[in-house]
Design a protein that fits this description.
globular, alpha/beta, about 45% helix, single chain, 11 helices, eight-stranded mixed sheet
Amino acid sequence: MKTTLVAALGAGLAIPACGLFLRYRRDLRAARARLAAVERHVISTQWGAIEYAERGCGDPVLVVHGIFHNCVGGLLSVRDLLSDRRVIAPSRFGYLGSSMPPDATPAAQADAFAALLDTLDIRQIDVIGLSAGATSSLQLALRHPRKVRHLAVLVGNLPGSPTAVVQPSSVKRSNGQLAMWAVKTFAPSTMARLVSAVPKGFAMTAEDARFVKEFIDSLFPVMPEGYDFDVSVSNVDVNDYNLESIGVPTLIVHTKDDRLASHDASKRAAARIPGARFVSLESGGHLMLGQAEVVRNELADFFADRRDRRAEQVAS
């Protein structure tokens, strides 16, 4: 009797566990199919493979994605911001099809970007660094200033931000693929708040909710090599940068209610970069929800301006 009961209990637990596993595998297959639907290219460099994706036509813009993302996520992040430009989005070290070289650094990542631009025969380009992508974007401006026409940093990881510290191992474990999938699947509203980093009480519109869901889906499959590099090496590296040496026209945009990266850190960084312009948005969290038109116009005006902003006063 006892043996039969134990077997029955085991079977009862195994059935839902099997269902969850199948659902998990199905969702990962769907994530890989979304990636496969986007044409991606890979070049070989001294840092290994560098992957990139493109969209649109016109003057080129290099878009450097944030944490958990990749070249496809980079395209998604600026989809509503750059409608008339050729967007070139590389996958950073350890993400998707890009290698993780030994002793990787944001400086090496910037050099790899420069190599990509050389391969594409692009002498100078506008650059957008998103979130954790700000670090290597700043390095590109510092190490290869002649290649950067304008630098825009959106909700960036900048010196003094809570994101610019080495994260504890518990944070790494909580951001594994299975853990993130479980939150996404069984607590979608919690996942939406974590990813968008909006304050409690922020009212998302239906359009906001659709974008956040699409953004969350784009984080899968999780690339642990790239994520670990960001939280252990890349993000904290920004604290040692000599921002006063940046000589390219720079725009920094940040929302006041971002609960992930720091608005105040972005404002301080803008004050240190000669001639930089700082745009403060009242709300929208880390994904700048509801601010697409404002940011789109700011970027268009900034990229169209050929004046030497190094001679201007810092906007506050």
